[in-house]
Amino acid sequence: MSTRSSGPELPVRRIDRILAYMALGLTILSIVCFFAVILARPLGVTDFTVGLWPLVVVMPLIALPIAFIMIIVLLVMSFVRRSRANKGA
Fold first, then answer.
1. What CA–CA distance (Å, rounded) separates 32 from 27?
2. Which domain holds residue 65?
3. Does residue 5 lie within any of the structural domains?
């Protein structure tokens, strides 16, 4: 079982919150677009080349990898910050 250290808690920085919420937003948007494409065919949409459909089709292909990269960056930043805090203690 792990025990909490007696040192002060590290504050959550603004950039950490921004990265987390942007990654979450991109992931949710991608999932919504994914289900919209899946449900469009049974609802009668036959042409995905007009209107907003090209954007809806391509959004998961672009936004999910970007969200994944943002989560990796967030993890690396968190590990570096904790490492620096432990060295200073």
1. 9
2. 14-83
3. no
DSSP one-letter code for 11 = P
Range list of H helices, the chain: 14-40, 53-88
pLDDT digits (tens, 9 = 90+) for 46-85: 888 998 999 999 999 999 999 999 999 999 999 999 888 8
In a domain? residue 1: no
Residue 7 domain-assigned (yes or no): no
Torsional sign, CA 49, 33, 15, 72: negative
Q: To which H or E segment does residue 9 belong?
A: none
| Structure token pair of residue 42 | 């049974």
Q: Is residue 9 part of a domain?
A: no
Number of structural domains in the chain: 1
